[in-house]
Write a structure and sequence with these properties.
Helix content: 25-40%
CATH architecture of the largest domain: Sandwich
Function: Subunits I and II form the functional core of the enzyme complex. Electrons originating in cytochrome c are transferred via heme a and Cu(A) to the binuclear center formed by heme a3 and Cu(B).
Oligomer: single chain
Enzyme class: translocase
CATH superfamily of the largest domain: Cupredoxins -  blue copper proteins
Largest sheet: 5 strands, mixed
CATH topology of the largest domain: Immunoglobulin-like
Strand order of the largest sheet: 3-2-1-5-8
Order of helices and strands: HHHEEEEEEEEEEHHEEHHH
Distance between the termini: 67 Å
Number of helices: 8
GO cellular component, one term: plasma membrane
CATH class of the largest domain: Mainly Beta
Strand content: 15-25%
Number of domains: 2
Shape: elongated
Membrane topology: Multi-pass membrane protein
InterPro entries: CcO_II, CcO_II-like_C, Copper_CuA, Cupredoxin, CuRO_CcO_Caa3_II, Cyt_c-like_dom, Cyt_c-like_dom_sf, Cyt_c_oxidase_su2
């Protein structure tokens, strides 16, 4: 019975080890798409090589000693007793020190390199990041725009993320680009990243922050420089006025139910809320609440029961509204695009 349990535990352990590699490739540190990610991967390779070397050497010595000095039938003599060995003690002290130096030198050097702020000649982009339970606010002070849960950047240029938390401790991590960095209330932290090529890179909060910590996702969307500049212009000149009759009803309902917490610029609203994610150009985002694909069906489900999607979210339910009112909200919110759309 004990043998069966041991085999079962071994199988479970092997499956657990195997399936840890079955993750989203956009969340992989071993496929870096940024300078910082590549430097950190080199440190991972170095530390793995050192640990593997130590493990192999210790295992070989252990196996040799077990076989060489095992008890043999008829052998009753007492082996030579050795009390201390200056040579061995020096060897097993010096070797770990050397290994630590081999690991420490590139680690310290890399740390200083990734902390170095980019020169003005590199045309860095500053993006202010604020973590909330359970969403992300991205503000572009140089362009005067704000978005949520999706951050757009130009590929090939350094991005300086200036980060803080609104409530509890969060952590900003984009595995393919590098990181991570904590966001703490009352304290500013910085992180310099750069995407080598255009693409969509997944990010997550990696500091346990509440019920929906695992759903506190965001996306980094890297563009060619011309596309990024066009996106900035489209956000600066956005038109949030409804066009269809149904969307106009939705715009009115947003003013009654949503605008106290959310902001929609150039929509004719006298109040721009700041407690929830900004909804300007919401219709061109790829996801809703960082979790659901952005489409009318999912938006309807989110409005009617946010807690079912993100437990602990401060977003209230709009299940009290009639179906045609929900349809109007969906129509208006999905119509919000940048000016070039």
């Amino acid at each position: 019975m004990k043998f069966v349990k041991a085999k079962l535990l071994m199988v479970i352990g092997m499956l657990t080890w195997f399936f840890t590699g079955c993750s989203n490739p956009a969340l992989s540190v071993v496929k870096p798409s940024g300078e910082v990610g590549k430097m950190q991967l080199n440190l991972i390779y170095l530390s793995t090589a050192i640990m593997t070397l130590v493990t192999v050497v210790v295992a070989v010595i252990y196996i040799y000693v077990v076989i060489r000095f095992r008890e043999r039938p008829g052998d009753t003599h007492i082996p030579k007793q050795v009390e201390g060995s200056t040579v061995l003690e020096i060897v097993w002290t010096v070797i770990p020190i050397i290994l630590l130096i081999i690991l420490a030198v590139p680690t310290v050097s890399t740390t200083f390199q990734i902390e170095k702020r980019p020169a003005p000649s590199q045309h860095p982009v500053q993006i202010n990041v604020t973590g909330y339970q359970y969403w992300w606010k991205f503000n572009y002070p140089q362009a005067g725009i704000t978005t949520a849960n999706e951050v757009h950047i130009p590929a090939g240029r350094p991005i300086e993320f200036v980060m803080q938390s609104h409530d509890v401790i969060h952590a900003f991590w984009v595995p393919s680009l590098g990181g991570k960095r904590d966001l703490e209330p009352g304290r500013m932290n910085r992180l310099i990243l750069k995407a080598d090529k255009p693409g969509t890179y997944e990010g997550k909060c990696t500091e346990l922050c509440g019920a929906s910590h695992a759903l506190m996702n965001f996306r980094v969307i890297a563009h060619q420089t011309a596309e990024y500049d066009a996106w900035i212009r489209s956000m600066q000149k956005v038109n949030s006025q409804a066009k269809s009759v149904l969307a106009k009803e939705g715009q009115r309902l947003v003013g009654q139910n949503c605008i106290g917490c959310h902001a929609i610029r150039n929509g004719g609203y006298k109040v721009l809320g700041g407690k929830g994610p900004e909804l300007t150009a919401f219709g061109q985002r790829t996801r809703i609440a960082g979790v659901l694909d952005n489409n009318p069906q999912n938006l309807r489900a989110w409005l009617q029961n946010p807690q079912n999607v993100k437990p602990g979210s401060r977003m209230p339910s709009f299940a009290h509204l009639e179906k045609k009112q929900i349809d109007a909200l969906v129509e208006y919110l999905e119509s919000l695009k940048g000016s070039s759309q």
